[in-house]
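Journal club side-thread
Mid-discussion, someone asked how the predicted structure for our own chain would compare to the paper's figures. Pasting it here so we can look after the session.
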Amino acid sequence: MKIEELSPEKSLELITQVITQARNKFEENGFIYMFWGALIAIASISQFILLKNEYYGISWYPYLLMPVGAIYSGFYFSKKKEKAKQNQISKMISALWIVLSINIMVLGFIFGTTLRESLIPVILILLSVGVIISGVSIKSRLLLYSGVFINISAIISFKLDWIYQPLLMGVVSIIAILIPGIILMVQLKKK
């Protein structure tokens, strides 16, 4: 087997092609950002409503939608993988989101009582890491800025009264996940 040496121009072209393929994959998956943005908003705002109506004992129940959403996402992406071959950047972003999702669910369902008022800020920080790295990896300023917005919101939420943290997370998920997902899908349709 002959090994071909790549010129700097060919190497740059190859890297650009891989990034473009990964970007196209995630623009196609603007749906998954819309899905998770809506799901997080519904669960968070529902929790806020339950807390405001003093249903403290069951206020976490809306988050039971998260494992259901994870199962749906798994089926969604398994069907996508059958149709399209993933490049290395897409695989890394997928692995990142799997690891972050598992950690967020473990924190929420197992360590929620330990973290208490810090749970939502920590979840927002982890969410911001995923969105920022996704944005940097596929060179999407929209996702990068969304991730930075989520991160700033996470820091602010440490100072927010705990009962309003779910409301903040719901609003942030609409602004920084749902809306960018819609924009990504619209951009894809324009292409």
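Post-session note: The mean pLDDT is 85.
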